Amino acid sequence: EDRAALAEIKAELAGAGYLKPDPPAGPRAKKPGKKPLKGRRPSGEGGAEPTSTPHRFLTTTGKEILVGRNNRQNDLLTLRLARPDDLWLHVKDIPGSHVILRLAPGEEAKPEEITEAALLAAWFSRGRQSSRVPVDYTTKNRVRKPSGARPGMVIYDHHHTVFVNPEPAQVERLKPASVRPSEPPSDG
User: Fold this and answer.
1) What does the pLDDT look like over 85-119, one tens digit per residue?
2) How high is the pLDDT of residue 61?
3) Chain centroid to CA 159: how far?
4) Mean pLDDT for the stretch of residues 56-73
5) CA triplet 90, 93, 96: central angle to 5 degrees?
6) Which of 6-15, 25-34, 168-177 has the lowest mean pLDDT?
7) By the 8 A CB rule, do 90 and 71 touch?
């Protein structure tokens, strides 16, 4: 949706070996056939990479929902930003975004809040075009990353499953007012 998000995805694919890293630019660029200088990192490694921010939504009750935009953001959301009592959601057995429903310590999520967060999990997954998409949810403290797992990969337990039908109008309704496109004034 923006250049920073695309740059993160490109860097992730290059790091995984699916794409070749961008060639260095500028007057000191490596010439074809020459070996890189010892101790120098190839372009795209170790430098400052552009960062994008997770999608942000609000439930109809005013709770914040955060949605990862790629595997790196999924890790960031789940492993660093989410608090132990926050609700973590992900579509069952389908690649997709990690979704965090922010909750106060000791607070229980209302059924409609869970449904709205699950709609976003289904919308930002490969199950977007399906009906009755299964979405698992559990508290963040039940989610962990296996040692050596690739970005975005987690395991979880003690979860529940809710089924939702993702629709664009429902997703649009959950966007914060500052993100919604301006609506024409009504005549009424």
Assistant:
1) 999 999 999 999 999 999 999 999 999 999 999 99
2) 95
3) 20
4) 94
5) 45
6) 25-34
7) no
Give dist(CA 20, CA 60) in Å, integer. 44
Query: Of 31, 36, 54, which is closest to residue 46 (Cα–Cα)?
Result: 36
Q: Give me the sign of the Cα torsion angle 154, 157, 160, 161.
A: positive
Which pLDDT score is estimated for 52? Answer: 72
Q: Is residue 154 exposed (0-12), middle (13-18) or buried (19+ Cβ within 10 Å)?
A: middle
**Residues 69 and 97 sit within 8 Å (Cβ to Cβ):** yes
Identify the pLDDT of residue 121. 97
**Phi and psi for 156 in degrees, rounded to 5?**
-150, 160
80-84, 132-136, 180-184: range with lowest mean pLDDT: 180-184
**DSSP-based three-state secondary structure for 10:** helix
**Integer Cα distance of 34 and 31 in angstroms:** 6
Distance of CA 9 to the CA centre of its chain: 11
DSSP state, 8?
H
Q: Who contacts 103 (Cβ-Cβ below 8 Å, separation ≥6)?
A: 63, 83, 85, 86, 87, 109
Side chain identity, residue 23: P
